[in-house]
Amino acid sequence: MPSASDPLTPVSPVISVSALVKQFGRFAALRGVSAEFAPGVLYAILGDNGAGKTTLLRALAGLTQPTRGSVLILGTRDVRAVCRELGYMAHPSLLYDEMSGMENLLYFARLYGIADDRRGATNMTAVGLDPALTRPVAQYSQGMRQRLSLARALLNDPKILLLDEPFSNVDLRSAREMVTLLAQMRTAGKTIFVVTHQASLLDGTADEFVWMEAGQITSRTRELRTLETP
Amino acid sequence: MSKNSGATAGVTGVTLAKDLRLEWRSKDAINSMLFFALLVVVVFSFSFDPNAEQSRQIAGGLVWVAVLFAAVVALNQTWARELRNQVLDAYRVSPAPANSLFLAKALGNFIFVAVLEMLMTPLFIMFYKLRPLGPAWQLIPLAVLGTWAIVVNGTFFAAMSLRARSREIMLPLLLFPVTIPALLALVNATTAILTGELSARFWIVLLTTYDVVFTIACLLLFELVLHAE
Q1: A26 CA to chain B: closest CA distance, Å?
Q2: What pLDDT does residue A1 have?
Q3: In chain A, whose CA is at the least distance from the CA of B12?
Q4: Total-model pTM
Q5: What domain range includes position A51?
Q6: Domain residues of chain B, as ranges?
């Protein structure tokens, strides 16, 4: 089994984290994470609650500043400089409940300077939602919110997708559709990080399973079964 | 116009439009502000029974204290909807300029407070039988400058107290001391216009300077506040 410091793919990394430490007061959410991640790969980040998965993802998105260590992303340490190449989906929806799906997507598209209204409609259709839906997001089911949230993360056609619990509260059929969509995007060359507790959904699709425990990457495997059934 | 300022203006515009749309649908800020300001006017009118001359002397203070207190209610709502579903993170990961968000929020609050002032002014005139003896037109630039002074700092400090556990208390604690010079200028200028005894020019110049200084300071510091953890 390869160790965390030995990336499985020898190509030049799209993201490289070095001795990353993140402390919240006296609690260390990340304890010296070092790893490299190759382009065009779908990574499933797994681990128990409190393992540091979400904190790692937020550090990669530039939403949290490391206490120590560094993140090199697309060749720069300045995440803001490459934010157009990042798509981020968090556990909460990051959507305005009072607006419809299309209104949300049109607003967020403008933040990326996307003036073409068709982008929002295309993305909604891609995640299996009807762009003509006029009801506010507050009236969406949890699964619909998750799919809309994914559509928002894809608006800027990012090279790197950071997805935190995209399948939580999503029915199995919708979750499988989302996995198929992620596989297509990986094939198209995107690097995808999926933090999930439903690892089995990504079995056969994810290229690599990154296991975290107590703020550290403990192992990286190509097969899910190796750690799920010891 | 440079490409950067064009982008800032564009994002400011869409963010302002989004905020106005959300407020139109929820009416969270305007309803609570109106209710609060109405209470203040009614309570004050029962507490005092001034004649016309006394009204002109005290109305400046009453009006602007009522506006300031009511504005705090709206200012507390400003960022609350950005915290729901952590929507603010979607803005933070985007390339949109931080100042666009600040300007949109400040302009939105300016519109809400201006609407409140327009609705409350006739009530104040009615309850306190107000008739200005000085140049009444000066009340318009004074109201614009005073409202901006309150909302620009209020929007900034509301953002600063965003992650505080008791942000409803934190905002007035931060805002009121900083607003004292503006409030002093507003009350004195309003009284000067209503009584017609003195010129309000000095206070209007002071208020303009205050607005310029604090707007620049807020714009320079807002990015730090937005990306703070």
Answers
A1: 16
A2: 40
A3: A111
A4: 0.90
A5: 39-58+85-228
A6: 3-226
